[in-house]
């Protein structure tokens, strides 16, 4: 289950971009937030010209699962 509501509704690269930026707000420190926001922007810009629908869906699924993993890693109670 995704930590941020709406992951199942992500269908386009722009929706993914917005979803991932919302996920960043859940990270514990501002430095982490800035780091991952920068990484998200870089990745978005590097894939902006992708036009294969299957490849786009693969990227979306992978990005959501990676975001879930990162949020679980940093927000897990010890």
List keywords for this structure.
68% helix, globular, mainly alpha, 78 residues
Characterise the protein shown here.
This protein has one domain. The protein has three helices and no strands. The protein has 78 residues and is mostly helical. The chain has helices at 13-24, 30-47, 53-75.
Task: State the share of residues found in helices, binned by percent.
Answer: 55-70%
Low-confidence stretches: none
pLDDT averaged residue by residue: 91
**How large, in whole angstroms, is the Cα Rg?**
12 Å
Between the first and last Cα atoms, what is the distance in angstroms? 20 Å
Beta-strand percentage range: under 5%
Query: What pattern of helices and strands is seen along the backbone?
Result: HHH
The beta-strand count equals 0
List the helices and strands and how they pair.
Blueprint: H1 13-24, H2 30-47, H3 53-75
Pfam families: Complex1_LYR
Protein name: LYR motif-containing protein 9
Family: Belongs to the complex I LYR family. LYRM9 subfamily.
Task: Please summarize what this structure is.
This is LYR motif-containing protein 9. The protein has helices spanning 13-24, 30-47, 53-75.
